What we know:
about 375 residues, single chain, about 15% strand, 10 strands, alpha+beta, five-stranded antiparallel beta sheet, 15 helices
Amino acid sequence: xxxxxxxxxxxxxxxxxxxxxPCSLDKFPTQVLTALPKLVGAETFAIGSFNIGDxxxxxxxxxxxxxxxxxxxxxxxxxxQNFLAHPVAQHYFQTLDGQALAISDFFNEQEFQxxxxxxxxxxxxxxxxxxxxxxxxxxIGNADxxxxxxxxxxxxxxxxxxxxxxxxxxxxxxxxxxxxxxxENLVAFNQLQYQLVEQHQVTEQAAIxxxxxNGKVKWMTQKAGEILHHYFPPSNAKFFLPDLLxxxxxxQVFELVQSTETFTSPCPLRLELDGRxxxxxxxxxxxxxxxxxxLEETQPIEFSIEVLQMMGLTKREAEVLFWLAKDQxxxxxxxxxxxxxxxxxxxLENVYEKFGVKSRLAAVIYIFQHLGIxxx
Length: 376
């Protein structure tokens, strides 16, 4: 059985370290191929990727140090039959056994020459044999512009003569699981990084302020700062809350600290300025001991008959309540709508029943609260 020397193991360790060095998925093939020559000799080193399924067959190759070999390989193997003319590739398609194998394991020199187009491709670059390892790629998606969603990978070393040894085979087989693990690590890292970027973008689009338990600002998104500057000018909101908001927060925090019950979000603070409405909600993360303020800007809801109908009232009930809320008397509403006082009172009774209230004032307060016109 072939064994490796102390020097071989040192070089193997250096190569494995280079595999696990952080880099982007796009740069990983270059990182692998530039480190591989220090471990095993060859004229050309290549990383390729391809699909086995029914999707369009379009292998991608990157070669070192002769980049033109990769471009020629992509063109030649774009037809599946040319790709499968390679005996090691055909073996992998049939078995998914990705262990190191060479063309010379399948064809003697004469048999190789009989595969005219396949043999001519290798001869055009002065190559006589190739040894390869294969494995299935993790799901990369669109994060890798080189492989572009391909699902299998091949790493090859090509020589100008048939002189691969058992040492070469052993080295490729030993690095194969590390190569696969390094790819999986990079994919997981890149996906996490992408999610963090997405999360950061979403967070920045939201107006959020993080506070310590003593009510001091820890951080805030840019949008939150812009909103505070609009409603509380001039404001040094990046470091401190405006006085009005700070007093409200201090009161909520005091209630929070004094309370022995499970925390429930307090009633939001609402402000209006220049036709814009700001709603500030406070939430408390008990595990982190951290307070968050969520700032939401909305257009104020105009009090109208149509809005009252949307709250479940009939058109006539909405008309009655609308004018009563405008401080009209029962008689004035009756004359305005061309109905009797008794009919006005009947519609009002229906409103009480729907809203679960018992008086005209309670009905008006109910609608103002639910429309956000009046804080609860």
